[in-house]
Each structure stands twice: as C-alpha cells, then as structure tokens.
Design brief:
Layout: E1 22-27, E2 32-35, H1 37-43, H2 47-50, H3 55-59, H4 65-78, E3 80-88, E4 94-105, E5 111-119, H5 120-138, E6 143-147, E7 153-156, H6 158-164, H7 168-171, H8 182-198, E8 202-211, E9 214-229, E10 235-244, H9 246-264, H10 271-282, E11 289-295, H11 296-299, E12 312-319, H12 324-327, E13 334-335, H13 342-349, E14 353-355, H14 369-377, E15 382-390, E16 393-402, H15 411-448, E17 459-466, E18 477-483, E19 489-496, H16 500-519, H17 524-541, E20 557-565, E21 570-576, E22 582-584, E23 590-591, E24 611-614, E25 620-624, H18 626-629, H19 636-647, H20 654-665, E26 674-681, E27 689-694, H21 700-714, H22 721-738, E28 744-750, E29 753-760, H23 780-787, E30 790-796, E31 799-807, H24 813-825
Antiparallel strand pairs: 1-2, 1-5, 3-4, 4-5, 6-7, 6-10, 8-9, 9-10, 11-12, 11-16, 12-13, 14-15, 15-16, 17-26, 18-19, 19-20, 20-21, 21-24, 22-23, 22-25, 25-26, 27-28, 28-29, 29-31, 30-31
Helix pairs in contact: 9-10, 9-15, 10-15, 15-16, 16-17, 19-20, 21-22, 22-23
Amino acid sequence: MDAPAPGSGEVPEDPFELPNSASAVLDDRGRVVGWSERAREHLGYPPDEVLGRMALELFVDSRDHEVVREAAAACERDQGWSGVLPVLHRSGRRVELGFRVRAVIRAGPAREWFLVVAPAEEMLQWETDRSVLDGLFRRSPIGLSVHAPDLSILRINRALAWYTQLSTAEIRSRRIGDFLIGPDLKTIETRLRRVLETGAPLIFTEQPCRLRSDPDHERVVSVSAFRMEDPSGRILGVTQLVEDVTDRYRARRRLALLNRASARIGTTLDLGQTTRELADVAVPDLADAVSVDLLESVARGDESAEETSGTVRRMAVHSVVPEALQVMYSAGSVFRFDPRTPHARCLAEQQPILEPELRSSPGWYFQDPERRRRALELDAHSLIVVPLKARGLLLGLLSLWRARRPEPFEEDDLTLAEEFAARAAVCIDNARRYTQQHQAALTLQRSLLPQELPDSSAVEVAHLYMPADPATGVGGDWFDVIPLSGARVALVVGDVVGHGLHAAATMGRLRTAVHTLAGLDYAPDEVLSHLDDLVNRLADEQEPADGRSGGQQIVGATCLYAVYDPTSRRCTLARAGHLPPAVVTSDGTVTVPDLPEGPPLGLGGLPFESAELDLAEGSLLALYTDGLVEARGLDLDEGLSRLREALSRPGRSLEETCTAVQDALLPDHPPDDVALLLARTRVLAPEQVASWELPAEPTAAARARQLTEATLTRWGLEELAFTAELVVSELVTNGYRYGGGTPVMLRLIRDRSLICEVSDGSNTAPHLRRARITDEGGRGLFLVAQLTERWGTRYTRDGKTVWTEFPLAGSPRDLLIVLQEDAVEG
C-alpha cells in the first residue's frame, strides 16, 4: 500500500510503518557517505552538499554537541541507539527529529552506521506502537496466540505459555491439540476456523477448557479472535486473545445457583417436597449426587433432639449418575451414621466437613463396606457434608458427592455449599414448623370430630367435612351420630361463628356438651336449651383477641338436633337458628319440612320447640351447614335448589350422594366451613320388639319374669333369660313401689344387644347405692348395674323409663354367682 504524502494529515493504516522516514549512512568517523531523497526533504540539503562532510559540523548546533556526543557514545557501547535529537535545517532553524541508529559491519575493520530519521512525533508514536506490540507478547496478563491458516502456532505470548509449562520458542509450530483435551479442543478449533472462513471476529466467548498438564481441573476462558490479512487481502492466519475467567465464572455461577435456590426451594410448606427441591437444585451445578438427611425428630415435625448423633431419615436423593441411586440409601430410609464417618462428625460438631479425596479419608470407609466398594467403582472421589441449621437448631445434614466431574471439591465449593445449606435450612425449618402445626391441627381435628361414625341399626350414615382453612384442617362446623337408649340414634349438625382454631375449640366444647346431654336422654328442645346456656357462659369467659379492653369476641352457634327411633319410625327434631334438613323418600322426592326455627345459640332466654316427623323405611335425612348451600356465592334459594337436585337421584349409595352434592355445590376451596351428614333410616321389624302394660299389682314382677322368659326363648336367647328375669323383676318391682299406682310398661327389644325397658309414671330418679350388711333392701340397682352392659334413665312427659342393655354373646351368670358369694362372705 502506498504511503500517504507527507503532510497529508492521513493516518497510515499500518501503525508500525514510518511513511515520512528518511535514511542516511555515516562512516566510522562520522562523515556522511549516504543520503536519501527523503533526507533532503527533512533537512533541505541536496546530496552533493552533504556527502563527505562531517555530520556533527554540518547538522548540529554547537549548543547541542554534548547531547549528540552522549548519544554517539551510547551507540558505540550498545551497537545502536534510538531517540530524538535537535538538528539544523539548511535554512538555519533547529528541528526535532527521531533517530534509529544501527551498526553496519563491512569487510575489514571499517564500520558504518545506518540511520533512519523521521519527524520526532512520528518516531515517538512508532516507538509507542512497538512497545505495545512488545508488551502484548512479553508482559500482558491476557494470553495471546498467533496461528497460521492451518491453525499451527506461529507465536504465543508469555501469559499463555505459562499454562503450557514450555517456553515461547518451544511452542512455535505446535498445535492446540498438544495442550487441550476432550471436546474443548474441538470447540475452539471449530470457532477459529469459522473466523478464518468468514472474517467475523469472535468476541468474549466463554468456554470450558481442560489442559493436558492439569486434566483434573476445569478452567473457563474468555476467547476473542480476529483474522489476519496483509495489505493485499491475503489471509495470513488468526490471532486469539485468551483470558482465564474461571474465578469470575465460578462467582457468577455461585450467585446464579443461590438465586435459583432462593426461587426454587420452599415453594411449598411440605417437608418432603422442600428437601427434594434442595436436592434437585444442587445437581448438577454443584455436585453429581446429593442426599438430604434430617434428624428423625425433625422429619416428624418436632424440635431437633439434643442427641445430635442419633437416627436420621433420608428425605431426598438426586444424582446425574443413575447407578448411584442404587448405592445410596433411598428416600425414606431410617438409619444411623457410624460415629467415625464424616457425616457423624458433621452432626456432632455441627461444622462442615470437606473431604477432597475420599480414598485418603479412612472415616468414610466405616459406614457400609459394600456401599463404599460400589461407590468407588462409580468413581466417587470427593465429598462435602454440611449441617442444616436454622434459628440455632440442628435439622440434619446435606451431603454432596462428585464422581463424573474430575476436579475435587475445593474451599470455594465448601463456602458455596454452606451458603446454599443456610438458605435451604430456613425453608426446611419453615416446613418443619408447618408440619408441626399441621399435625397439631390434625390431632385437634381427630379429637374434635368423629373419625368413625358408629354402626347403628337405626340409620346408615355418610358424611362430608371441608374446613375453610385447609392449613389447620379444622373449623367451626361439626356433625355427630350418637347412639341412644332403646336403639335410637341422635343426629347432630352445628356451626360455630368464625373459622380456624378458635372456632374449632368452641366447637369441641359444644360437641362434648351435646354428647353429655345426649347421654342424659334429654329431648331435642331441652338439649338446645342447655347448649344455649353453655354458649352464653363461653361468651362471658372469652377475652378480647387483641388483649384490649372493651368488647368481647362474638361467640355464637347454630345447631340442628334430631332423634330417630327405629321402632316407631318417628324422628323428633329441634333447631337453633340452623337450616332445616332435607328429607328424601325412596323414590327421590325431596322435601324440606317446616320446622320451628328457634333462635341461634347464645342469645339466651328464648324457648326452643321440637317437631316430629314420621319417616318411611329407607328415607334419607340430609343435615348440613350453611357453608354447603352458599359456597359459590349463591343465594339461599338457589343453593337449596341445587341441593335438592343433587339429592333427588335414587339408587345411589350414600358415598356417591355425598360426592354428587360436593360436585354440584362446592368449589375446591370453599370460603366457609362445610359439614354434611346423610342418614338413611332403618326400621326394626315387629318381631324384634315386644311390649306389655302391667297393672300396678304385687304380681307384676312375677308376670314380667314369665313374659321375659317366654319372649327370650322365642328369640333363641335362653342363655340370657335368668339374668334378664332378675333385672326385669327388680325394675318392675321398683316401678310398682314408686310409680304412684300407674301401670308399668315393659318393653323388650332384640337389636345388636338385648334391651329391657321399664316405664312408670313417676319422675323420681333411681339412685345407685351400696347397701349396708344390716339393710334389707337397696341392692337392686347395684345388681342391675353389675349384671348389665349399660343402664340408665330417660324422662318423658308421662314419667320415666329405666333401660338396660345386655350383650347377646355370653351370659353374666358367673358374675351373679361371684356377687352372691361376696354377699354371703360379707
């Protein structure tokens, strides 16, 4: 390429070219013996005026002689010199010129000096550019290599030669494959060939790199490359700049891993899911295989035990080596670490353990020799064990293994694992606390709600319960099926104001009270009256939830209480502010009976009324709370209409009916607690019931014994006859004595047990007492209590009924003999 004309102002394309340079030759005495045309342009002298003359006298001002002599001395000493000197122009003015001087050896002792001269500013720029080029190859911290078109190495700088452990001269003419291994070589050669073919430069492209001299450590380099061409456009090769960015890459990777861990761990409050998320995030960026072990107490949701070397439960495992899953303990395994293993030391000391080389770690060998052998066959070679700690509690440990990745764990990896485990431990502890609270809520639910409804001859039942707060698992709604005397059953559905644990606790107290009142055989309206008093007392006991004075928490509830008698098919109901039940006949006809409404519980002082329904055998009674019919934001009429439609299909089982009601009325997460109780009525056959009216005469007891014996014989219960006669005789005698002269009613029912009932017109309650030795009476009810499975009293509008129950299997005759013997000894 032609150099631009002097003074044109254009910058040459080649920074190492001196376009305005001139040349001259001096002999060994300093006389000018050679002169170029460009030298004439710089100094104004034609050749004939300078050739043969002393350069010092012709070109140097007397004031600058000393400076020139020092330069000449340096040139003699070093066989060359470069710098800037002042010289005289032919016009007499002084000009600054840059000089490069080199010795030229001639035959004989004579010597000449070759001078390259250029304007000072150009010479300085040229020296700077040459210094930059020299710095790139000698002092630059960034690697530089120059390759021929066949990618053989033409030149390499010291920074890159350091990694090869060869000198720059020894590397010349070698190839990249002499220093790199594996797919890294193929990647870089492919990219360099693309630069050669297209001319498009490669800019800051990161890639992994493994050196043959250090194959166990993976480096990451940033590569930039450009194609080299001469002025005519001929391709000379390619130059690449290589920077080791391993530390920067690892720091960026660590930050990205921590960010991913923060985003992906703890997405739920499920303890198992949280530990699986921890294992999944750590592989493969940090380790080839990961296991998460929690102390057994923590896995159950409890606080961690003081014994830190105790039993652990493996919660999660993950590996990029499928065979490793056959070697590691599987998820769900419960075991103990040998005290000599790194895992046991980590638990005991609560400090991280780094084992860069497992083969030199004797402690690892003690856990399971067979698993150890198989792990070594899979090239497991490095281990990190980090304790999982949160809020001062030890939760378990995180174990990380390397097998496929050849480089061992380092201190930086340990630091990353600690940060990683610290963040994950907080999520695990949150999940543990949730598990603890959830288990407490489930325990509360199991204690507050019936887990298994009693099997009854009166009704077949099914239920649906959905709390508004799924986190606690309980709410203020409840249902119950309570066996009563005389083969009857009580059906209860209630709703406490509010949601969550406070409403559930109130519900539990009400449910307990209902059981107590049902055991006393109160009528439905009387049960609600007593519940109303209880709710009022609860409201008085409550303090403000926020601890401030002024005002109390609202404690209120609604309830529907029904008693069904399978002997009479009569159902007696009373409700306190609750929705009435739905009654479904066997053909699918649905009605909602008009029952006295009654005020909600807690208002106090208002009466409740009962109503009676006659239900045909196979009728379906549906008791529910308002959350069922108002769950989808429907008004009450529309909700009841959907309920009728869901109940109106005959021929389905009760469980299928519950599912149909749920699908028709409930979303996945209802906004209010929901309780539904379905009861299909049964009727005792006439031959299972026998009843008589006995006149108030002294012979009533004898007559009762005769009737009892005959009936039990007919029913095939002769083994119970003796005991039943004794009990019936005692109860009828009491009725005759204390019944006020009214007839005594005797009823026998053969159900799951033998039921004996004696009714009279007295409201006096019978009392169980222990008679003294000298007493002639008072032992009757004591014998009744000892000879029967259950007994009790219920009151009616016309008097009272004393009832007893005998188990059908076996006879208490032996007990009677024992009691008689005790009495004789007394």
